[in-house]
UniProtKB/TrEMBL annotation:
<dbReference type="InterPro" id="IPR023213">
    <property type="entry name" value="CAT-like_dom_sf"/>
</dbReference>
<dbReference type="GO" id="GO:0005737">
    <property type="term" value="C:cytoplasm"/>
</dbReference>
<dbReference type="Pfam" id="PF00198">
    <property type="entry name" value="2-oxoacid_dh"/>
</dbReference>
<dbReference type="InterPro" id="IPR000089">
    <property type="entry name" value="Biotin_lipoyl"/>
</dbReference>
<comment type="similarity">
    <text>Belongs to the 2-oxoacid dehydrogenase family.</text>
</comment>
<dbReference type="GO" id="GO:0031405">
    <property type="term" value="F:lipoic acid binding"/>
</dbReference>
<dbReference type="Pfam" id="PF00364">
    <property type="entry name" value="Biotin_lipoyl"/>
</dbReference>
<feature type="domain" description="Peripheral subunit-binding (PSBD)">
    <location>
        <begin position="136"/>
        <end position="173"/>
    </location>
</feature>
<protein>
    <recommendedName>
        <fullName>Dihydrolipoamide acetyltransferase component of pyruvate dehydrogenase complex</fullName>
        <ecNumber>2.3.1.-</ecNumber>
    </recommendedName>
</protein>
<keyword id="KW-0808">Transferase</keyword>
<dbReference type="Pfam" id="PF02817">
    <property type="entry name" value="E3_binding"/>
</dbReference>
<dbReference type="InterPro" id="IPR036625">
    <property type="entry name" value="E3-bd_dom_sf"/>
</dbReference>
<dbReference type="InterPro" id="IPR050743">
    <property type="entry name" value="2-oxoacid_DH_E2_comp"/>
</dbReference>
<dbReference type="GO" id="GO:0016407">
    <property type="term" value="F:acetyltransferase activity"/>
</dbReference>
<keyword id="KW-0012">Acyltransferase</keyword>
<keyword id="KW-0450">Lipoyl</keyword>
<dbReference type="InterPro" id="IPR001078">
    <property type="entry name" value="2-oxoacid_DH_actylTfrase"/>
</dbReference>
Length: 423
């Protein structure tokens, strides 16, 4: 038997160090070639680290949240044969690092098909946890349990360290358990528990970027009300006519098209500002970042060359990128290079928001929810579908008048949707 040492790989783009976000294995696990061992976080994306060999894990080189240099020892695996550990190499400690005593916010990533995760085994109808005990589970699993009306503390977890998985919720439901199984008094039990969440991985990167953006850019926001009745009618008509063959359209592709058309007259909005070099770069290509919520936080996949896409082409790409981001599978290229960002909370969009710029961009357009309200049109009170655009700009680069005119241009395009397609 020998030892195969896997070092932190060179991920490219001049990256010298990365953050270890999550282990998918532990000491003593048997792994196969191409099985995902760990997730690491670069400045732009989460990256899976697969195993190049079959063997048994004998040592882990770090713990979640640790920043590791490229070339440092990531993991050691006992293999058949000589392995790749030289006699002169530094000894590898056959010891698993102490796991942090907090629940990390991470991307759930399943092993490769060659090493499928075993099906969950529920050894009993429920788990007798204390009322103040918080079981391990990802944010997605917690939301799923909430939607199903399941008290998570009653579910037996089959994942590492007893982590509750989606499959465990399904097994729990299959056994016919319900909220009625739990003592009613538990809902009113006094609680004195506390929870500390370690800020690592994507959440750390989001925190750093948001702090950097608010400290460096001179933010100002502008809110405008838009009557979207006509464009909603057009969207419904197109979906009825072409939805089956081309796919359903949401409002986002129309907003992307409105951005593209408006930017022809306001190229200063489609720009990046290098504040160190004091250089503004205006771009002809419109690469629209679409802010997307995932289990690990906000990510911004990029619809490249939106200026050259049809409504359905944009819709397909937005859907593809959103799914990749939510599943933690978006590549570095798909998460970088945007020139202007579109952010929307959908039905939860509220009345007004103040989006934070996605530096080095100088503009971000925020979409609020659509509501029906009585409006006066040609002297008559009628019900119209209304929506606010809450947008932010970098005042170091964009003047207030230009920002207002830009949003007014988008408003005109959306209220008269035929103008979106008139060249």
């Amino acid at each position: 038997m020998g030892t195969h040492v896997i070092k932190m790989p060179d991920i490219g783009e001049g990256i010298a160090e990365v953050e270890l976000s999550q282990w998918h294995v532990k000491v003593g696990d048997l792994v196969v070639e191409d099985q995902v061992l760990a997730d690491v976080m670069t400045d732009k994306a989460m990256v899976d680290i697969p195993s190049p060999v079959h063997g048994k894990v004998i040592a882990l080189g770090g713990q979640p949240g640790e920043v590791m240099a490229v070339g440092s020892v990531l993991i050691s695996i006992e293999v058949e044969g000589a392995g790749n550990l030289k006699e002169s190499a530094a000894p590898v400690v056959d010891k698993e690092p102490v796991a942090p005593k907090v629940e990390a916010v991470v991307v759930e990533s399943k092993p490769a098909a060659a090493a499928p995760r075993p099906a969950p085994v529920c050894q009993g109808p429920m788990v007798a946890r204390q009322a103040d005990e918080r079981p391990l589970a990802s944010p997605a699993v917690r939301k799923h349990a909430l939607d199903l009306g399941i008290q998570l503390r009653l579910v037996r977890g089959s994942g590492p360290a007893g982590r509750v998985l989606h499959e465990d919720l399904e097994a729990y439901l299959a056994q016919g358990q319900s909220n009625a199984s739990a003592p009613v008094a538990a809902a009113y039990a006094q609680r004195n528990d506390e929870e500390q969440i370690q800020v690592i991985g994507m959440r750390r990167k989001i925190a750093q970027r948001m702090q950097d953006a608010t400290q460096r850019a001179a933010h100002f926001s502008y809110v405008e009300e838009i009557d979207v009745t006509a464009i909603e009618e057009l969207r419904a008509h197109l979906n009825e006519k072409h939805g089956t063959s081309r796919g359903k359209l949401t409002l986002l592709p129309f907003l992307v098209r409105a951005l593209v058309v408006a930017l022809r007259d306001f190229p200063q909005m489609n720009a990046r500002y290098d504040d160190e070099a004091q250089v503004i770069t205006r771009l002809g290509a419109v690469h629209v970042g679409v802010a997307t919520q995932s289990d690990v936080g906000l990510m911004v996949p990029v619809v490249r060359h939106a200026e050259a896409r049809s409504l359905w082409d944009s819709a397909t790409e937005i859907s593809r990128l959103a799914n990749a981001a939510r599943n933690g599978k978006a590549s570095r290229d798909e998460l970088s290079g945007s020139t202007i960002t579109l952010t929307s909370l959908g039905a939860l969009g509220g009345i007004v928001s103040t989006p934070v710029l996605n530096l080095p961009e100088v503009a971000i357009v925020g979409v609020n929810k659509i509501v029906e309200r009585p409006m006066v049109v040609k002297g008559q009170v009628v019900i119209r579908k209304m929506m606010n655009l809450s947008s932010s700009f970098d005042h170091r680069v964009v003047d207030g008048m230009d920002a207002a005119l830009f949003i007014q241009a988008i408003r005109g395009l959306l209220e008269q949707p035929a103008t979106l397609f008139v060249e």
